C-alpha cells in the first residue's frame, strides 16, 4: 500500500481589518472563486517574498559600497 501524502499543518489566526479592505477581499474572492484563506496566504507570501528580495538587494549594495 502506498504511503499517504502528508497534509499541510495550519495555524488559526484572528485579525482585525478595516471594513473597506475586508469588502475588497470579499469581492476579490467572490470574483476569483478562491477562498479568503488562499487569497490572504498568497498575498502575504508575495509581500514577504518581495520584502526579502529588496532586503537582499540592499545588503548586496551595502557590501559593494564598502569595497
Counting structural domains, the number is 1
The major pleated sheet works out as:
none
Rg computed from alpha carbons, rounded to a whole number of angstroms = 19 Å
What is the count of helical runs?
2
Report low-confidence residues grouped into runs of 5 or more: none
> What distance lies between the first and last C-alpha atoms, to the nearest angstrom?
59 Å
Fraction of residues in H or I helices: 55-70%
Q: Look at the helices and sheets and give the structural class.
A: mainly alpha
Q: Could you tell me the strand content as a percent range?
A: under 5%
Question: What form results from the Cα inertia axes?
Answer: flat
Total beta strands: 0
Secondary-structure element string: HH
- Taking all residues together, what is the mean pLDDT? 93
Q: Which keywords apply here?
A:
single chain; about 70 residues; mainly alpha; 2 helices; about 65% helix; flat
Characterization of this structure:
The longest helix is centred in the last third of the chain and has 31 residues, at 36-66. It is built from 2 helices and no strands. It is mostly helical. It has helices at residues 19-32, 36-66. The chain has one domain (19-66). It is flat. 0% of the residues are buried.
